[in-house]
Amino acid sequence: PLAGKMALNSLLQRQLMQTIYTKALHDTSPSSVLFGPPHYATTNSLSSPLPPQSAGSPEVNGLAPSPSQSEGAGSTSEGEEMDTAEIARQVKEQLIKHNIGQRVFGHYVLGLSQGSVSEILARPKPWSKLTIRGKEPFHKMKHFLSDEQNILALRSIQGRQRGNITTRIRTPETGSDEAIKSILEQAKRELQVQKADGVGERQWRSGYHRGSGSYFQIYAHSLRLVESSQPPSSSSSSDENIRSILEQARREMEAQQVALEPVLKANSMAPTDLSLLGSPLSTLPYTPIAQSLKKPSTSPLLDFHSGVKKEMGEVAVSDVGVDGVPKLGRLSESGGGLGGGSWREHWWSTGLSERRGTGQPSVSEDAHSQEDSKEKLPRLGSTAPVAPASSLDYWKDWPSSESPYSQSSELSLQMPSGSETPQSSPLPSSSPLLTLPKVAKPVVPPLTPEQYEYYMYQEVDTVDLTQQVKDKLAKNGICQRIFGEKVLGLSQGSVSDMLSRPKHWSKLTQKGREPFIRMQLWLNGELGQALLPMPGQTQEITPKTSASCSPAPESPLSSAEESVKSQQEEQMCQASIQEPSETSESQPGTPLPLPLPGHAGLSIQEMVAMSPELDTYAITKKVKEVLTDNNLGQRLFGESILGLTQGSVSDLLARPKPWHKLSLKGREPFVRMQLWLNDPRNVEKLMDMKRMEKKAVLHMCFPAYMKRRHSSIGESHSLESGLSGSDLTQSASPQNLSQQQQQQPQQQQQPHLKKPRVVLAPEEKEALKRAYQQKPYPSPKTIEELASQLNLKTSTVINWFHNYRSRIRRELFIEEIQAAASEGGSPSARPGKSGGEGDNSCDGTESDSTAEGRPSGSEERKGLLESPNRSQRDEEGEAELPSASGTSRPRGGIIDSLFGIPESVSTATATATPCRNPKDSSLRKKKAANLNNIIHRLEKAANRDEPHEWEF
DNA sequence: TTGTAGTCAATACC
DNA sequence: GGTATTGACTACAA
Questions:
Q1: Is residue A396 within 8 Å of residue A544, measured between CB atoms?
Q2: What is the distance in angstroms measured between the alpha-carbon CA of A949 and the sugar C1' of C1?
Q3: Which UniProt keywords apply (predicted)?
């Protein structure tokens, strides 16, 4: 998987490293010798337990001694015992003193995660208890402490890049282009710092790192080589120098990209090609828009593409930077701000790269080439506030917050005074330095001085604030990771922690308050406005469509804004979803068109994000009806319309979750279905596709697929058996044939290597179900025992429990909805509502058919979903499982009693459901689910593993 | 690290 | 040949 992407990244990095290395060869400074080629030096430092100073950097300790340098930390030599507690203490002291976060420290100095740093600092193990590897961080810390320049340097990084740390941390250690970019950015920025601070390159000499994460070191190296090649006093030539290096790297990368061009092209053409098959876009074919969701197996090349797309946020900035250069230039040049003005200028200048010249298609290309290009380019190019260059007019009015510039300009409008300062920093006129397929994520600009002063000392109700944030995130389907990165420059974990356990304002340091201030600004609409999900992943965008009608950004009353926005979104979605349309052109300010992928409208993800609540049951019911009536298969429908496999479609249609239980991603298929249903012509188109599929000529074009999918049957099957989802939508065209065929050999080489699917024997399942009854959330120990008893892999047992819990839950949802519907709930969910589903309500759409309608299904669930009596029997039989019996005894009575509780309730609801057998699985499911719920909640509440300790 | 949601895809079933 | 089931996997959240 991701082979293409990985290969490219790897290639790019190698190119860059080579470039830097080549330059370094001409750098004869001692430091360069010290560090050697970045790549290898880091490897050495990794593999060697020796502290860096032993690698030959006497200058390090010879530098001005750090005030923080301790006796113990500074004087310990290799192999000598260290006072780990003291080192940790000193490090903590320095981190606090310089306001350096553990994350940054861990990343740049130790090559460890924040969590690990916290562990090490809070609970340093005695030296004697540490393994070689465990000692490594202490060596590094000691070294870090040995020279204050290290600390200052790190502080510099922290101070300047606060908000971008996540990017670095998330950067794969293998070295992505993001990482490269980060390094280069740092190098450039640091040059400024050095000039300003008069700090020589020696400060970086001590950048001792683990190789895999050694940006610090590489940075130092690139920095040094840059410096060594020109007078440090010459700012401009310094820039020139860096630029020259980067330009070279860029050229080389471009060359690589050109080499890959055909591949990219082939992929981007696919959607368009589909229309050649007589399947216009209006059929809502599943297109690469969701490629990020697709497995790479169908096409690594495509996946590469989607991988790039996944980084759209970054690309966005890049493109805006390019297309928006003139626009950005108009922004105020007043610099200054929290972290100083000059660096930010370079931040942006180096943080932005152009796409032009990379061979990427223009934004204004045929909208039908959509998805891929639409996601990456149109949005980007046209997001800039001025002069959208795209034919996708719609986007021009989306002052994307992907662009820090548009954020800035909005922000500047809102700030009381001097608000145009830091955030509206101009895009430097310097030419783009580096072109990469992906670009570093947009950073979160520091708070402006005005913001800082204005908010920092006003008490904030952090609980209320975080609640509002949570609500808004949930409402817009924004994930914590994106929010953290784009709004706060925090990791998902930090966001989660902060939102769930906000500290009291008075307990927060200034630094700790910053995220909360950002949250407030975000709620106010002062930071990038809204984050809305975007293709591939959630991203922020400023919904200009609603903004155009909503209060001006100057009046950021969050609630008002929310409500207005919400209303409008709903209206838009209603309109778009209810209005069958395939031709309407996107016009800003007008009701949104049917968001057909490939058209200039909203992407499906955006539609999902803005969609009003849909009746998933009604939709699936209707879809099943239509498919049945027209003899269309789940596979074709799923693969071409939903982008899902047949199995998923089956599952989806049989057990749709209620809308409110669905994640954003989970809602997408329903929105797609609804959109598909809106236009009856879509059915015909799908039928056309079906016919097309069967054409012999196409069949002949994909013999390998036939083999692959039906290796045991031969090649006599129809095409529809031989195309997977993206294959179908993307490759069913002559243009792609060669590509397909090229992939065939590879794909055919592997099948036998696949490990066989595990099939649990009925006894094993029964045993697992009994264990589940006893303990739906078994401890690792129990799992081990179960696996051992059943002679299964631990992972199999774990997976089984995961799956079983998940599936039980889902069935419960169905039951509940059904019960509610039968008692006067949603009419659409009421059985028998629309024609032809008298049976469906009790089978197709609902879970019963799968649960009981089949021998396997009923057997599958009986063991678990039993009546109290049966449950008791099961428990008796459970003695055969030591693990289960061990825990079941103390709980046996409890379980029974718990089984009894929901019984009456569920009986009532179950019997109230029409066309349902009173003795059907509903009752048992409810019981089981109820029980599981209760148990789990109790376990959670008690925070214990052993339920027998519960007190009732 | 653990739990959940969403899927895939092999394969069982009709 | 279509549909249902289900073990496994990935991403995300806590």
A1: no
A2: 54
A3: Coiled coil, DNA-binding, Homeobox, Nucleus, Phosphoprotein, Repeat, Transcription, Transcription regulation
DSSP string for A207-231: ----GGGTHHHHHHHHHHHHHHTS-
For the stretch A34-74, pLDDT in tens is: 222 222 222 233 233 323 333 333 333 333 333 333 333 33
Tell me if A811 sits within 8 A of A910, measured CB to CB. no
CA of A795 to C1' of C10 (A): 15
User: In angstroms, rounded to a whole number, what is the distance separating the alpha carbons of residues A676 and A316?
Assistant: 30
Q: What is the pLDDT of residues A135-156, one digit of tens each?
A: 666 767 777 777 776 777 666 5
Under a CB-based contact definition with an 8 Å cutoff, are residues A96 and A151 in contact? no
State the Cα–Cα distance between residues A825 and A674, nearest whole angstrom: 21
Residue A823's CB is within 10 A of a number of other CB atoms, namely 12
Q: Contact at 8 Å (CB) between A19 and A187? A: no
CA separation for the pair A480, A483 (Å, rounded): 5
* Nucleotide in closest CA–C1' contact with A852: C4
* Exposure b/e, A855-881, CB count within 10 A at least 16 = b: eebbebbbbbbbebebbbebbeebeeb
Length of chain A equals: 952
Bases along strand B below 7 A from a protein CB = 2-14
Distance in Å, residue A814 CA to nucleotide B7 C1':
20
* Spacing of A853 CA from B10 C1' in Å: 22
Q: How far apart are CA A316 and CA A321, in angstroms?
A: 8
The whole-number Å distance from A509's CA to C14's C1' is 24
Between A148-161 and A177-197, two packed helices, what is the crossing angle to 10 degrees? 120
A657 beta carbon < 7 A from strand B? yes
CB A655 within 8 A of CB A646: no
Q: Are A169 and A491 in contact (CB under 8 A)?
A: yes
Determine the Cα angle at A336 with ends A330 and A340, to 5°. Answer: 130
Could you identify the residue written with the tokens 């214990």? Answer: A944
Return d(Cα A867, Cα A860) in angstroms, integer: 15
Q: Is the CB of A860 under 7 A from strand B?
A: no
